[in-house]
């Protein structure tokens, strides 16, 4: 299943901190049965995020996982960029991650990530810390392959391509 991992962090782009969430997300996704073909880091810029997501959709990626940009700070615009790209939401994935986040901390309810379909591509937003990815991926991982397979078959696309 052709997958892209997109980390959104101006801090990482400017080398003020390391990207720990993106590589961990890729590792966990591969363990869940997907093939991570590309990993990128972009700053918190709406047009750039939207462009990268649209490019992944146009290139036929089955799955795009984002890390970062889902909080309450003004630069946390990944959900808005994702909503501008998707055709329809798949709210259960985001709801499951929020519920799991709240089991770890009351502030877990504050994550604003969304999930949705853009053509034959499933896009899922995750928080940008390695600890949050580690805590939340277990509720997401088992649903990824079945969700993408179902979505792509319904559109007459190969499930994994």
From TrEMBL:
Pathway involvement of the protein, from the record: Cofactor biosynthesis; molybdopterin biosynthesis
Which InterPro entries does this one have?
MoaB/Mog-like_dom_sf, MoaB/Mog_dom, MPT_Adenylyltrnsfr/MoaC-Rel
Record's Pfam families?
MoCF_biosynth
Q: Where is the MoaB/Mog domain?
A: 4-147
> What domain of life does the UniProt record list for this protein's source?
Bacteria
Sorted alphabetically, the keyword list is: Molybdenum cofactor biosynthesis
Entry keyword annotation includes Manganese? no
Checking NCBIfam families in the record gives: molyb_syn
Name the record gives this protein: MogA/MoaB family molybdenum cofactor biosynthesis protein
Can you name the source organism?
A: Svornostia abyssi
């Amino acid at each position: 299943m052709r997958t892209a991992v997109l980390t959104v962090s101006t801090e990482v782009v400017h080398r003020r901190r390391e990207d720990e969430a993106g590589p961990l997300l890729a590792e966990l996704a591969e363990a869940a049965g997907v093939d991570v073909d590309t990993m990128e880091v972009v700053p918190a810029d709406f047009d750039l995020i939207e462009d990268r997501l649209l490019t992944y959709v146009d290139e036929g990626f089955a799955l795009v996982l984002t890390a970062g940009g889902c909080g309450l700070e003004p630069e946390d615009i990944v959900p808005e960029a994702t909503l501008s790209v998707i055709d329809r939401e798949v709210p259960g994935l985001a709801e499951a991650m929020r519920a799991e986040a709240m089991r770890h901390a009351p502030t877990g309810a504050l994550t604003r990530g969304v999930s949705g379909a853009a053509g034959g591509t499933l896009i899922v937003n995750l928080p940008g810390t390695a600890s949050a990815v580690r805590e939340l991926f277990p509720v997401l991982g088992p649903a990824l392959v079945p969700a993408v397979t179902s979505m792509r078959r319904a559109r007459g696309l190969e499930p994994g391509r």
